TrEMBL record:
Gene that this polypeptide is encoded by: LOC101172385
Protein name from the UniProt record: Enoyl reductase (ER) domain-containing protein
Any one GO molecular-function label of the UniProt entry: zinc ion binding
PROSITE patterns (alphabetical): ADH_ZINC
Sequence similarity: Belongs to the zinc-containing alcohol dehydrogenase family.
One annotated Gene Ontology cellular component of this protein: cytosol
Listed cofactors: Zn(2+)
InterPro entries: ADH-like_C, ADH-like_N, ADH_Zn_CS, ER, GroES-like_sf, NAD(P)-bd_dom_sf
PANTHER family per UniProt: ALCOHOL DEHYDROGENASE, ALCOHOL DEHYDROGENASE 8A-RELATED
Keywords, ordered alphabetically: Metal-binding, NAD, Oxidoreductase, Zinc
BP term (GO), one: formaldehyde catabolic process
Annotated SUPFAM superfamilies: GroES-like, NAD(P)-binding Rossmann-fold domains
Organism: Oryzias latipes (Japanese rice fish)
Domain Enoyl reductase (ER): 11-373
Amino acid sequence: MSTAGKVIKCKAAVAWEPNKPVVMEEIEVAPPQENEVRIKIVATSVCHSDLYHLFESMHPEGFPTVLGHEGAGIVESVGSGVTEFQPGDKVIPLFLCQCRQCRFCKSPRTNQCEAAWTRIRQEIMASVESRFTCRGKRVLQFMGTSTFSEYTVINQIAVTKINPAAPLDKVCLLGCGICTGYGAAVNTAKVEPGSTCAVFGLGAVGLAAVMGCKDAGAERILAVDINSQKAEKAKAFGATDFVNPKDHNIPINQVLAEMTNGGVDYSLECVGKVEVMRTALESCMEAWGVSVIVGWTDMYDIAIRPSHLICGRTWKGSMFGGFKSKDGVAQMVKAYMDKKLMVDEFITHNMTLDQINNAIDLMKDCKCIRTVMSVSPQ
């Protein structure tokens, strides 16, 4: 029986309040409105940004919400005005939209989209509109995606169609972490062949940054993390050296300077801590080094001395790896299907959506790279 045009009742993991376990609930998902697509989520994974909202920023207006923004699924139905998608299409939801019409989308200088600045309230990390209700209450859609649900509704400018042969339980990871890290190296830092790089933080984003540095032709890639158990994984993605700051009694930027004759050419901070952002900047070559902030936080200010930049360093930020989302994700799926991109190697655990709190605990305790959860059968 067709569900098009009808309210769908389905399972979703609802975060009713911050710093508490999410709860599996039956929610109501309204039909897609104009320019919207309703998607059956097949697979999703936990990203640190989900934990940031739940355990760190904890904005009181950001709850109740359905988290999840790294997922993949199949179009169930479309609203009026939608011409790019049809039921049955395999798609990846996007937390960063691409309308292709605004001055940002038309500019090669940015991957931002003006529509994103009005669709998403950044302080609560949720879309202005929501098609979810539960127990008679409106439930927010985290980053406009909410992939911890069997069904979700998303504006067509925040969805990309992918190769129908792509395995959704693998390419779901391209909705955030892998593109974010890989693109930060390739698109934002613009790592050059023969260069020396340092990547701080070896979660999925950091490992993807290592992979990006390798694919860009870096000669030496120093992977930095306080967990020495990540050394082997980092080298599998292309790192030439592993450095644990805890193994040294001098600041890590000094350690890296000694190892690289004055500092690396490129440094990428993939942790989301302001102290590490400064250290990453100080670790790159004073005369020409480029340091990129990749890790997300909006809770603290950061302070540096002007002399850290005046001699020639460049300090940049990277959102979603600099990829224009619709185009970039489709390209990354193609690279994976052409066996030019590692994706499967990021997956350390497989679970079901019912086990969402276990998956969150694994991420919180730094015991996984990515946990992929099956949500709905294809």
